[in-house]
């Protein structure tokens, strides 16, 4: 081993608190103000609300289906990570009656995830009807400029209008709860509980009247003392993959978060009575990331403590059952003229490599001479040609950035040498072989995106192998950390598919639709309400979705006079 290369000692396990899924899932879509001192914050003013109205000519054939009858127009209920095969299993056992009720009354379809299946670009494509190349959201973070600083993506990074922007401009009242990248808050007529609320509840929830009520609900559920003291977001460091204390703490917190989400979701909706609700619920996602091995122990590679298995074997199903109850509450609030859309962006698999994460790739770059570290063990950008950028801890499909002059803060690679350095790094990485002659990558190539310059998909089958670099042999696990997470979206090269169920006026019953994409929701919601579809949207009108199809009208774009252009 080269003496100048400092490979960190292999720790027993990597705590989940570093994972972006926890930062965005618990720190975002749970959105339930678990910070201390919330009783003494200075509340913002409530927004003045206006009355809903119609401003555009609409098709009379569709308007009759979408007419106001005192109920909501659309209930879009997102369940991040809900896995359709698990739901089918539970329905077959006689569970999840409300999932079954919705399924029997509408159209269902599977949705191919993006690759990699990262939440922000997927949910933003759902909200805009556009691909990431148009809406501008590509990851959980807005990239590293060479200073080592990342920012969580927000609505100010989005370069296209969301469906709620379009509908609010038409005078409708909007409810937005937990949606990824929904801060800074945009909604004026309605309410927002954004994905940033748990980090900064004073800014993440509007209007103040809703914020006050959610604080009161949370204090009641937690108890006043716990509410004032706050609830720590970070789970304890896990000592191994069967750490009983870790799972006890995680079980308590996800149970609590689930109750808070369900309670406050219904509270905000019933208080404000919006015309449209767009909601993203990530409780299932987080629960399955950590507890899925107990639901499917036969699919998990490492031994599972039988006592933990007995204690937590039903926990994932318990959360599914609670979401069925929440769905039932919303179905009771719907009217015959309400469109109810249940959506999951991607499913789940038990991670076949038991939570190993390839998040030390910079060490390989260091061995190859493309990256330098300072005495503190941090990247020395002033002497580094390339580095990992914008990756999540759990990614195996990863990206490198060239440390380019004029782009990175401490960029050293001249603009004219960009292609030469990309080629040099690609050549060196493609030459890497395991000791049995296998490539380290499923694929590796240049990528022209804001997220990186080189994209590489690492083979999970390499976990137990060794690799030869510059004539020396290294166990690949030196470049990995072991995570407590057992559930993943990445076990299949294409990602486990998402799904939707859509029930409402003029929507076919008992039908399975093919080739539905994330981008198809907005065009078909607009069409169902009698509004034209934007010609610049990547989503398409799906004739097969409707009982009585009506050819859609089109408008060039909804982006005109928009600050999202």
UniProtKB/TrEMBL annotation:
Transmembrane segments: 20-41
Single annotated GO MF: hydrolase activity
PANTHER family named in the record: BIS(5'-ADENOSYL)-TRIPHOSPHATASE, ECTONUCLEOTIDE PYROPHOSPHATASE/PHOSPHODIESTERASE
Keywords noted in UniProt: Membrane, Transmembrane, Transmembrane helix
InterPro entries linked: Alkaline_phosphatase_core_sf, Phosphodiest/P_Trfase
Name listed for the protein in its UniProt record: Phosphodiesterase
Organism: Candidatus Magasanikbacteria bacterium CG10_big_fil_rev_8_21_14_0_10_47_10
Pfam families named among the record's database cross-references: Phosphodiest
Lineage of source species: Bacteria, Candidatus Magasanikiibacteriota
């Amino acid at each position: 081993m080269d003496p100048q290369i400092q490979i960190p000692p292999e720790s027993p396990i990597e705590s989940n608190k570093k994972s972006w899924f926890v930062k965005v899932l618990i720190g975002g879509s749970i959105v339930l103000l678990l910070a201390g001192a919330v009783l003494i914050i200075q509340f913002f003013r409530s927004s003045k609300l206006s009355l809903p109205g119609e401003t555009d000519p609409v098709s009379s054939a569709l308007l009759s289906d979408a007419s106001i009858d005192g109920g909501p127009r659309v209930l879009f209920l997102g369940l991040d990570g809900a896995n359709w095969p698990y739901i089918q299993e539970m329905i077959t056992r006689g569970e999840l009656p409300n999932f079954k009720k919705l399924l029997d009354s509408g159209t269902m379809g599977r949705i191919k995830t993006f690759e990699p299946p990262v939440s922000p670009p997927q949910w933003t494509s759902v909200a805009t009807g556009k691909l990431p190349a148009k809406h501008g959201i590509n990851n959980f973070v807005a990239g590293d400029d060479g200073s080592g600083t990342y920012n969580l993506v927000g609505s100010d990074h989005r370069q296209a209008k969301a469906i709620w922007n379009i509908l609010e401009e038409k005078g409708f009242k909007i409810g937005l709860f937990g949606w990824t990248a929904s801060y800074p808050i945009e909604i004026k007529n309605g309410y927002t509980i954004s994905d940033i609320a748990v980090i900064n509840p004073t800014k993440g929830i509007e209007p103040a009247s809703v914020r006050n009520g959610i604080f009161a609900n949370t204090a009641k559920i937690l108890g006043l003392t716990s509410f004032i003291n706050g609830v720590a977001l970070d789970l304890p460091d896990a000592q191994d993959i069967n750490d009983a204390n870790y799972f006890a703490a995680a079980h308590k917190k996800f149970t609590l978060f689930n109750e808070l989400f369900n309670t406050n979701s219904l509270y905000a909706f019933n208080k404000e009575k919006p015309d449209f609700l767009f909601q993203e619920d990530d409780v299932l996602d987080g629960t399955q990331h950590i507890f899925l091995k107990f639901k499917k122990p036969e699919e998990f590679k490492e031994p599972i403590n039988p006592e933990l298995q007995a204690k937590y074997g039903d926990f994932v199903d318990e959360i599914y059952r609670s979401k069925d109850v929440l769905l039932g509450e919303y179905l009771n609030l719907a009217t015959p003229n309400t469109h109810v859309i249940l959506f999951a962006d991607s499913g789940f698999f038990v991670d076949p490599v038991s939570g190993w994460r390839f998040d030390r790739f910079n060490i390989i770059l260091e061995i190859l001479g493309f990256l330098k570290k300072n005495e503190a063990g941090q990247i020395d950008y002033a002497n580094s040609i390339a580095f990992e950028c914008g990756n999540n801890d759990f990614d195996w499909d990863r990206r490198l950035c060239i440390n380019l002059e004029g782009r990175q803060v401490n960029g050293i690679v001249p603009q004219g040498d960009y292609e030469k350095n990309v080629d040099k790094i690609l050549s060196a990485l493609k030459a890497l072989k395991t000791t049995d002659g296998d490539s380290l990558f499923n694929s590796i190539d240049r990528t022209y995106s804001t997220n990186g310059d080189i994209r590489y998909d690492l083979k999970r089958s390499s976990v137990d192998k060794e690799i030869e670099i510059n004539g020396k042999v290294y166990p690949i696990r030196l470049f990995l950390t072991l995570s407590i997470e057992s559930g993943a979206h990445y076990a299949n090269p294409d990602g486990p598919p998402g799904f939707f169920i859509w029930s409402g006026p003029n929507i076919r019953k008992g039908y399975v639709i093919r080739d539905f994409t994330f981008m198809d929701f907005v065009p078909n919601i607009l069409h169902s309400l009698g509004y034209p579809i934007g010609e610049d949207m990547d989503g398409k009108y799906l004739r097969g979705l409707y009982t009585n199809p009506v050819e859609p009208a089109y408008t060039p774009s909804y982006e005109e006079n928009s600050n999202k252009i």
